[in-house]
Every structure is written in C-alpha cells, then in structure tokens.
Design the sequence.
C-alpha cells in the first residue's frame, strides 16, 4: 500500500499552512485575494456565481489520466476542508517533491474550494435561498447544485472528494475518543450493495485510515452509510463517480478545528497520492474494521452528586457584531450514563 510518511506530512503542513485562513468562519472575502498567487501553476477559473451572485471558483492542476474532483463548503458553516485545500495548494506551488509531482503527473485535479459562498457569508448550512445543497442532488433547485453537476459531467472524474464538518457529539464507537476524522463510501441504494464503485471508494479510504492510525489511533470513525435518496454523495456514487466523504470532526480542545484541519489535509493528500500510485482499487474489507461513529459527547456537562440532576450544554455558533460567537445552550434531553462532556464541571452539592 502506497502511504506517505507522517514526518513528510507534518513537515510540509507546518511549512505551507496558509496562515491567512484561521478559525471556523471562512467567507469568500477571506479567499478572494489568494487565487492570484496560484495562477502560475494552477488554471484558476470563475465557473459561476451563487444565488446572491457571489463568485464560485475552481482550481485545476495536473495532466494525468486519473481525474479527481474535490469540493468543500457546500455547507457554508463547514470550512475545515476549505482551509486544508489552501494548505495543499501552497504545497503544490512551493514544494518540489517526488510525492507531489507523482500526483500531478498521474492525475488531473479540479478543486472547488467554496461551493456555497452565500452560506459561508452568514455562517449557515444552507445557501442564499435556504436550500441544503447536500440534499439537492436530485431536484437541483439551487444554482450551486446545477453548477456542481455541470462540472461533474463535463470533467467526468473517476473519484470525487466531498468535504464536510461534523458535530462535536460524535465519538468513535466503543471508545471515549472524539471522531476527529470520519469517512464514508456512500451507498448507491437502500440495500447498501457492494458495487464496484463503492469497493473502489472503500479501497482509497482504507489507505487514508491506515495512515491516520499511525498518528491519531482510534480517533477515526465511519459515517453511517444509510442511503439518502437526495444526497450528493449517494447520487454521485450511483451515477458512477466514486465519491469519498471526509467529515472533519472534533479534536480535544480544538474548537477552532485547527488540529482537525491538519488531519483533513493529511487525509486528502494521502488519498490523492494513493490514487496516483494505484492501478487496481479492489482491497476493501478492512474498511469495515473502521468503527462506526457513535454519539456520546456533549460540549459541557455539569455533574452533581445526584446524577439525575446532571445538565448538558452544547455550543451554538452565531454571528454577533460581525464576529462568530459560541454560546452555551442547555440541552433538554436527559443524559444517559454513557454520555461524556468534552469539558465536565463537578459540583459538590445539588442546586435544585
């Protein structure tokens, strides 16, 4: 199996991390001025506009026969993949490495770093017309959904990378570890049949997971493969475009997702390198050894002597005075004994 060394990944990430991008709220204005520096190596193109007429760009690099389409921020409030993309762009621009050169020799890559700039502007999941682009693959009511499908069919990729963020509630099944990265090879229909396309997708995920286990063991989960008839990944997989879902999750004390950004970067680069170096994508069974995601976490739990009185809170992000603010909001549901807080405060007596 073609794996990149952790030392190599750590070194290039540290050297090439795009320092101008930080934090969870990344808008189009944050990336607008970055495109110019990549024009010497990438083909940078405005491919369309959003519902509210914000530009949507793609960056294209490579000359190989293996075509790969990657996109991020189809949910405007999920920016970890976007930041990891720009870290990767810097690597291609500034580092003359055989590992990187092999990717652009064997592959042609198309990146859409921000598919939903309207949602990004106001830090929402949906687009400017209140449409969830990840549930619009069939109706394609949104301009952004039509645009993504046009690019998909025109480019005709062998693989797609669909980048998302997942909530802090997720843990790796049967552990107390947060699911810092989760993967999914989407199902093509309700029975979750193991088609040739799903097997190829699983094979690439196996390589990414193998690499991550060397640096964040037992912190990688498997997202549910329940079939969603209107979801992007499920439909692209059904159409014959092998789609790899990467969900960037929580790392301890990393609410701005900078550690998750690093492991997302590692995952993308490992996936691209593996595809570049591999001719047959058939080995898949260890994909099912990746534990499922589970949901045991809350952001904060107040613990009392009478555990029946324990209270859980989740952070809720909102924009106030042009700043992204995280507010703690009390959770109504009753806690289970298995629930854990990323932070727990223990009180000596009950206040009820």
Sequence:
């Amino acid at each position: 199996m073609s794996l990149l060394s952790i030392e190599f990944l750590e070194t290039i990430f540290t050297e090439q991390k795009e320092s101008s991008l930080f934090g969870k709220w990344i808008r189009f204005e944050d990336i607008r001025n970055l495109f110019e520096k990549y024009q010497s190596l990438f083909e940078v193109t405005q491919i369309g506009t959003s519902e509210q007429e914000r530009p949507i760009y793609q960056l294209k690099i490579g000359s190989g026969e293996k075509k790969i389409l990657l996109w991020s921020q189809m949910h405007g409030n999920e920016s970890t993949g976007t930041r990891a993309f720009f870290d990767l762009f810097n690597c291609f621009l500034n580092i003359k490495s055989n590992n990187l050169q092999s990717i652009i020799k064997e592959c042609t890559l198309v990146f859409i770093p921000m598919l939903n700039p309207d949602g990004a502007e106001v830090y929402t999941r949906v687009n400017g017309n209140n449409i969830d682009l990840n549930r619009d693959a069939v109706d394609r009511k949104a301009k952004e959904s039509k645009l993504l499908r046009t690019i998909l069919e025109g480019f005709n990729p062998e693989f797609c990378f669909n980048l998302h963020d997942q909530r802090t509630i997720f843990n790796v099944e049967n552990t107390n570890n947060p699911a810092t990265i989760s993967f999914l090879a989407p199902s093509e229909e309700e029975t979750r049949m193991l088609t040739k396309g799903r097997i190829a997708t699983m094979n690439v995920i196996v390589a990414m997971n193998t690499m991550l286990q060397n640096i964040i063991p037992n912190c990688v989960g498997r997202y549910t493969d329940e079939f969603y008839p209107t979801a992007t990944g499920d439909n692209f997989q059904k159409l014959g475009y092998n789609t790899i879902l990467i969900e960037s999750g929580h790392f301890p004390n990393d609410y701005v997702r900078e550690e998750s950004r690093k492991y997302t970067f590692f995952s993308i680069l490992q996936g691209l390198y593996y595809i570049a170096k591999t001719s047959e994508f058939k080995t898949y069974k260890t994909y099912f050894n990746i534990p499922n995601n589970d949901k045991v976490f809350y952001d904060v739990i107040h613990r009392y002597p009478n555990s029946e009185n324990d209270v859980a809170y989740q952070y809720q992000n909102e924009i106030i005075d042009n700043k992204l603010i995280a507010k703690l909001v009390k959770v109504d549901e009753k806690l289970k004994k298995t629930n854990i807080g990323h932070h727990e405060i223990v009180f000596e007596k009950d206040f009820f």
Q: What stands out?
A: The chain has two domains: 6-295, 297-346. The chain has a mean pLDDT of 96. Residues 6-295 form a domain with the Aminopeptidase fold (CATH 3.40.630.10). The two ends are 58 Å apart (CA to CA).
